[in-house]
Specification:
single chain; alpha+beta; Rossmann fold; Dna Ligase, domain 1; D-amino Acid Aminotransferase, Chain A, domain 1; six-stranded antiparallel sheet; four-stranded parallel sheet
């Protein structure tokens, strides 16, 4: 039987080599071609073949990827970084049949989720205000302090991996960081704490229904990726996830990040893609790359995941290649 040929991008980063790890654990045993812009990317040693990529910011990246799909007879592309998804999604109408070989969410959802402010507005407009953290784009310290409290957050509307978020305690800090961020910022009330953060992943059917899901309480590393995670079964998170999914109608791997404060659930952001905890989730029975092969290549409904209980801890490990 011919092996599926899977292209995994950015295999030098945590999502990329995490996807490769999941493919090795899965049921399909595909032939894996990895790409990365760095010739020393660690993930290349876990792939069957490695090709140096050009950056996603390059205007020729879409053409490069389409040619790679054709030349290497790729059956499915799994993206390892958000920048590639944004670039490809923006020009998908020009890519012909090649886009059918990419595990990529709906274009309107990708564009929406790039802006946290717009995501919150959509929830408010559709009666899901209970999940929206009080926020403002009003560049006025007195207004922010009055509506959000003495201490609040400034965060980029289009930030990634919790980068660029600062805690504001004074007007001096507000003016400094506000001017630094320019127009693309939002001020937000602080809810809950880091002990009550959750990363929730669903495999969307595209019509508002969920095929599979997993719920993890998480702790973040300084790089913004999940460093520790514990499987949880929480009814309030499940209800929030179901209602938001019914509104957004994602297709394929989609990640929600929540905080809880008491019994309330607040949405931090939506990532319409595979996220950094992909390899952790697979070890608890939720293998997104495997589901992608079922959905995009086999045109089958992925089997229901049986989620095991437990905790995962990430640590540094050495890979030595002797000369």
């Amino acid at each position: 039987m011919k092996k599926h040929r899977i292209l995994v991008t950015a295999v030098g980063a945590i999502v990329g080599y995490g996807i490769v790890d999941c493919l090795r654990l899965g049921q399909y045993n595909p032939y894996i071609i990895g790409t990365d812009i760095f010739t020393d990317a660690v993930g290349q040693f876990f792939c069957d073949e490695f090709i140096t990529s050009i950056p996603a910011a390059d205007d020729d990246y879409p053409e490069f990827l389409v040619k790679l799909i054709d030349d290497m007879e790729i059956d499915l592309v799994l993206f390892g970084i958000e920048q590639e998804i944004s670039k490809i999604s923006g020009v998908r109408e020009c890519l012909g049949e090649s886009v059918q070989k990419m595990a990529i969410n709906k274009k309107p959802l990708i564009e929406l989720c790039e802006d946290k402010w717009e995501t919150g507005l959509l929830l408010l407009e559709n009666g899901l205000d209970e999940y929206v953290i009080e926020s403002t784009t009003d560049f006025d310290y007195s207004h922010c302090k009055k509506s959000l409290g003495d201490t609040f957050l400034l965060k980029p509307r289009r930030g990634r991996a919790s980068k660029g978020i600062v805690t504001i305690n004074s007007e001096k800090d507000f003016n400094f960081f506000g001017q630094k961020m320019g127009d693309e910022f939002m001020a937000q009330k602080i809810v809950g704490d880091i002990e009550d953060e959750y990363t929730v992943s669903v495999f969307g059917q595209g019509d508002g229904n969920i095929i599979n899901s997993i719920y993890l309480r998480r702790k973040l590393s300084q790089e913004g990726a999940t460093s520790k995670a514990t499987v949880v079964f929480d009814e309030s998170l499940e209800i929030a996830t179901k209602r938001i999914t019914e509104l957004l109608k994602p297709e394929g791997p989609t990640n929600y990040q929540f905080r809880k404060e008491g019994d309330r659930v607040f949405l931090l952001e939506v990532n319409p893609r595979i996220s950094s905890a992909v390899s952790i989730r697979a070890k608890f029975g939720y293998n997104e790359p495997d589901m992608c092969i079922s959905h995009y290549i086999m045109k089958e409904r992925p089997v229901s995941s049986i989620i095991s209980k437990g905790t995962a801890i990430r640590y540094i490990k050495d890979l030595v290649i002797h000369s």
